[in-house]
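FAQ
Q: What does a multi-component entry look like?
A: The components come first, one per line:
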Amino acid sequence: MSGADRIAAGGVTAHENNRPPKIEIHGIERIFLKKNETNGAQESFVALKDVNLKVESGEFVTVVGPSGCGKSTLLFLLSGLASPSRGEILINGDKVTGPALNCGIVLQGYALFPWRSVRKNIEFGLELKSVPKKERKEISDYYINLVDLTGFENHYPYQLSGGMQQRVAIARVLAYDPDVLLMDEPFAAVDAQTRETMQDELLNIWEKTQKTIVLVTHNIEEAIGLADRVAVMSRNPGTIRDVVPVNLPRPRRIGGVRNTPDFQILSHHIWELLQDKGSRGGSGAQSAAVPRVDIGEHIRDDAVI
Amino acid sequence: MEGNAKKAETGGIRGILRVLSRIHHRIMGLYLFILFLILWQIAPSVGWTNPVLIPSFSTVLAEGAYIGLGNVLVHIAISMKRVFVGFIISTAVALPLGFILSGALPRIAEALNPLMHFLSQVPPFILYPVFLIIVGPGEFGIYAVILWSAFWPILFTTIDGMRGIDARLIQCARSMNAGNFAVFTKVVFPAIFPNLVLGIRSGLTMSFLMMVGAESLGAASGMGFMIRNAQQIGAVARIYLGALLVAIVGFLLNFAAVEVEKTLVTWKEIAQ
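Then the predicted structure of the entire assembly, as tokens:
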């Protein structure tokens, strides 16, 4: 614990510069209406409650939490695809009221257009922006090269491996050129080796493009390895328990930091937060009612601690 | 194939045999077809069947020659005109209706669902007498049957296709600021296009089959009429001729439709 606090203390500077935050989330609450499975009555389900977070421009923030904690919902709200029941989200100081040009999302499971080739998938957002054809090709060439898919321009998604499809999805959103990149478990469906390569590639792209990235994951190692700060969420109701600064050196490669003591300490700290042992969050009493074991098991499956 | 051709040159007889066996595999389906025609030809003449009830293949062909190719083609052309006109009208109504119901009015679509499935079970031929009573004999009844037959497959595959669209694709487009029009043209339409083509193809096949039936109920021309007329005057060979023509035209129609489908829906075709 004390080790984690030491690292945490070093990360405060990010909040203290003079630029306004890129993303501000103020007191978000999101309530879903759902049907009770036994009696069919409409019930409200609080997916997110009291979520506050600020993300600086160019910052890489990961959101980690057990399944069902509302982390994907949070991304949807950020992207403008859904709106909060209460509270507000500001991007560049403007309230988010719907999908906007400054925000791009990589959805879970790639969501590539199966009838479009790699190139046409990447150009999708550009077509929507009415970018002329010649310029579209230049841009898609650049991103095809960036995500190392040269030679596969005319392949269709079904002809690509999971990792390649993922890279197309990332290239598609990068070509759209938003300031803020939202990613929903982008590496969940690829094998462990590909995952690490993709994570390093993402770090590489982030360093090159200086985008603001919010990435949702349930993998602790991924959360720490990529991020400047890790927002740890708990569920019932979904809320941010704590935001843990990651003061590992940049530029960074996951393989290079994974075995450092600092990484291990952070990893243990976040694991404890997810286990509900580090009772710093405000909703400790409520979440204690939930059986903890399955959350712990779930996360341990994926995390190397 | 190239390598094979070379082997055939160098390997002499063995190579030629290999090429022949390859051709043999290609046209396997044709053998049974030819066998069927041979059986048809010899069965009546060697007394396996009654030649009056089942005339031989050559008798049927001779009947065709007797009527004259021109007359036969006129009947076919009239039938095809009916199919296409009815089918096009049907598509023009069913497609937009499918889009509107499932896209813009999902609740109404859900409410209408049982009624639509009930109506779709009404045999198209029932409509013929109904129209006969309402508007009198003539083309209307035939068109009604064709319209009805093509309408339901097209409507249902469109609605099913709309339901089957991956919501994330639409979310992805929306997240990139796509408006309703762009979502429709760039996501919804291409996503359900394979369904549309499939629905249109089965609609076409259905309306072709039903057209023959409708014509035999009461028309003064067309392939269905030809068969009914032959039956009335007792020209047995002509009945078989009519059936043969319907089969050939239907086969070609379906073949053309499948080819068009393959050409249009490349990404799905290979994916399967």
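Q: Is there any commentary attached?
A: Sometimes. For this entry: The CA atoms of residues 101 and 109 of chain B lie 5 Å apart.
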